[in-house]
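Re: [help] complex structure
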Amino acid sequence: MKKPKRYLITSALPYANGPLHLGHIAGAYLPADIYVRYLKLKDKDVAFICGSDEHGVPITLRARKEGVSPQVIVDKYHKMIKTAFSEFGIDFDIYHRTSSKLHHETASDFFKTMYEKGEFIEKEEEQYYDEKEKQFLADRYITGTCPKCGYEEAYGDQCEKCGTSLSPKELKNPTSRLSGNSPILKKTKHWYLPLDKYQQEWLEEWIDSHKSNWKSNVYGQCKSWLNGGLQPRAVTRDLDWGVPVPVEGYEGKVLYVWFDAPIGYISATKAWAKENNKNWKDYWQSEDSQLIHFIGKDNIVFHCLIFPAMLKAHGNYILPDNVPANEFLNLEGDKLSTSRNWAVWIHEYLHDFPGKQDVLRYTICANLPEQKDNDFTWKDFQNRNNNELVAILGNFINRTIVLTHKHYGGEVPERGTLTDFDKKTLAEMTVIKKNLEKSIESFRFREAVKIAMDLARLGNKYLADTEPWKVIKTDEERVKTIMNISIQISAALSIIIEPFLPFTADKLRKFLNIEKLNWDLAGSDSIIEAGHTINKANLLFDKIEDEAIEKQIQKLMDSKKANQAEQQQAEPAKENITFDDFVKMDIRVGTILEAERVPKTDKLIKLKIDTGIDQRTVVSGIAVDHKPEDIIGKQVSILVNLEPRKIRGIVSQGMILMAEDASGKLVFAVPEVKTSNGASIK
RNA sequence: GGCGAGGUAGCUCAGCUGGUUAGAGCGCAUGAUUCAUAAUCAUGAGGCCGGCGGUUCAAGUCCGCCUCUCGCUACCA
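Output below.
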């Protein structure tokens, strides 16, 4: 493949609804930053683009809950996220935002072009409308009684109590969360992106063409979606927070956030180009540019299927050359979770470990979930620091600088005749540089960072084998050569660690008293000339003691405890009902006569129950905790006058009463001693 | 249940289109060494490459079945 003239690198836009954590960094930001720093060291023309995704319903809901405008929410998190990135050394060329005017214009124009080309399908449907607030209601803006479990606070898209996904029209007694009134059904028009059509026309073929150069997890995910058959996807929705739909007569509609967010890459590029006297079209609309999206696996469908479909439908745009999505990073064996506070927050890390950005960058990089989910532990963080950064890299630099000062007052000595071992070592440097390039260019960053450390290992080995501290007593000339070469290795290190450890590289350059050097110099055997004076060194890395690590682990244990406490807290009682309401329920004692798993389901068991009144079939979602053969003959409590319901094609007549704890474990609610079938429970 | 990704040394992972005694880092053991933050260097121990069957002269690598983990999805009143 021909070399691209310029690179357009994007990292997933973080949602401006919470702070950044470890998982974000590992997924989309650190790999991108490493890649970009590498390209820039090679003097490539690169635009590294990111920004906050500031639209969408969760932000409006949070705003409403906190009694402020959505803008206040996004301003807060945008600033927080931007600061965290910048302090952590994730060096975007621009960190833009989708609430900006430029973005609104860009997204609006993008839609308009597609609209005028007739790319969209129009559909008119009935949707709930709040007459008082004069607006259509997004799914999350409607609550009502869940048709399945009777929970009264179910949302329009999902019942939080029973987990069922719903559509607003299924809710009983729908209520607007805006005004508290009952909404009415009103016709509304929306535009859809015909992904099914694109799939047939070119999308599937295009994905297939990337089978060999995309990562298997990425390609596999795409195929999974394509096999399921893509469906037209609504581009617009009725909401007041977002980019307004630029069609006359359709005020009060905005672009769906999935549509407007990726356009954020384009608007951010425009903003950057303007500030830097560049032409944004060179990056987005020129075939000799290469577009790469760095994302986490949750974003694969948007960046590999939907956004390319948008770009192609719009016309003129290039499509991504690669989408190196990472899997997920876990923390101490558990999934990262914002709501459960199971995370390492970047702003907290920066506070707890000042000046140690590179230690975390290194640990994350060495553990990047490139092929599969991976685990971050604080113990590993400490080990990586103490046994690798301190012992191998920091130590080599320190040895070299101390020796140079001890014998030569900090002046780089002349090199004499090279021995075979010298030559071999210098040749090895070149090999390391080449391997490193190969790894980075194929997005294998954990391998890359290991190779970079190999250069420091090479340095330590060189010193151990040449023993300058011994040779100085017998052959002073020889030691000059040894130290000269050690200095060259140190200088090469200052270059090749820059993508991974930019803060350390900077420190090292100060020790060596040099400027930032071009990548290709790393393969040279004389980066620093003899006679150059280096500075005195302090330490590149400090040891991290057990206490610091224990403190972090304790922090996590505390949030685990807090979560458990929250889980154990019983839910508040439901609204009072009358005795009449209660007696409407006919609960009986019954005996399980037969039990068998419902095929092709995980949870369902089909039961035959003797209720005393009759024998009937009940389907129950208990297979996770109970085996069919264990429960035959068991007495249970059964609600017998529940409306029959078809589940997986089987008519279920009634409901077995179960006690469910916070973890979801189910146990039977049964009579204390055996009693007769049909006995009434009241 | 369907789809996708994984299951390789104590731990974290490489092993590309099948080819000589299966690799790395950390950890562990032994030895060497002192310029260096008790850091470094060398050597070594440690693997029925999740299980079973098949294709092949040859399989960690290809095919089938099973099993476990993760994700998406269906199901749960």
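Chain A has four domains: 6-118+257-326, 121-191, 349-523, 579-681.
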